[in-house]
Structures are given as structure tokens and as C-alpha cells.
Design brief:
single chain; mainly alpha; Arp2/3 complex 21 kDa subunit ARPC3; 7 helices; about 65% helix; globular; disordered C terminus
Length: about 190
Amino acid sequence: MNQNPDAGRELARVAIFAALLVALGMVTVPIPGGVPITAQTLGVMLAGAVLGPRRAPLSVLLVLALAAVGLPVLAGGRGGLGAFVGPTAGYLLGWVAGAVVIGLIMRGHRVTWWRTALATVLGGILVVYAFGIPVQALVLGMDLRTAAASSIVFLPGDALKAATATVLVIALRRAYPPAFGRAASASAPRAV
């Protein structure tokens, strides 16, 4: 039996970030409109920046698959197919796209604070909102402008998550480059 140790490491990295996403969803702040404030988007931002555009969405998809089969892995311990038809469904899909965008911005480049901040804001906020707001409007029967206005309440928290992700990614890159994968730890320049 030929086992590839790199494949095992990569699978472990995907699983670790999936577990982080679940853990970050356990603390939620419910607000009117059906979309709770949670730290799970911080997990998406971290996964995208650390795992890259191919593995980060696998972490998110793993969490979504676990939710689909009914495990309580989403914000506040929710799970089941109902999460994929409710007002948060678009945000869940946005996590996958956001993780890809963050990974693409970070991929093959030096890990810098400005690149990480740009990636987390574009992928972790704008892309997630681009998926989430239209679905929220559709499910709740409101026009797009009203749904977008109701999402403004999330911007300060999401900006704080992007700043936190930036600090954590820079610190992780300095302290433990192998977290970014074998090729990244061997060849990428140090974080600035």
C-alpha cells in the first residue's frame, strides 16, 4: 500500500480548519432579520489565507456537508437541510466563494499585512455579502436595497474579523510557516 504523507498532511489541514469553523460558530449573537452575528466568517478568512484557493473551500464544504446531514455545526448549533433554504443560505454559499477569492489573492505572493487585509475584506466580506444579501432578500421577501441596508449592522464586526484574521495570519506565518503547506514553508519569503 503506497501512502502519500503529503496527502495526509493536507487532509489534516483541511480538517483542522473545518473544526475551527465549527468552533467559531458556537458563539452567536442573534439579531432581527434571521442572520446571527457569528465568528464563522473569521474561520473562512483564516482558511482562505492559510490553505489557499483549492483546500480552503474543501474545509468550508466539509462543514456544509456535515450541516446538511444534520450535525449541529453551524452558528448556534444549527444543522440540517433547513439551513440551506433559510435566510442564511446565501451566506453559506458565499463562504465557499469567499474562501476561493481569499486564497487566490494570497496564492503565490509574499504574505504581507496589506495583501492579507485586502484578501479578507474582498473575499471574506464583499464576496460573502454578494451571495448572502440577494438570498436573504429572496427568502425574507424584501427588496435587495432593504436587505443590503439591514446588513450594514454586520460591517463593523466583519471589519474586526478581517483585522483579526490579518493579525493572526501574519503571526502564524512568522511563528509556524508549515501551517501554510509544505511548498509555502520551504520557498515563500517571511511575512512582513
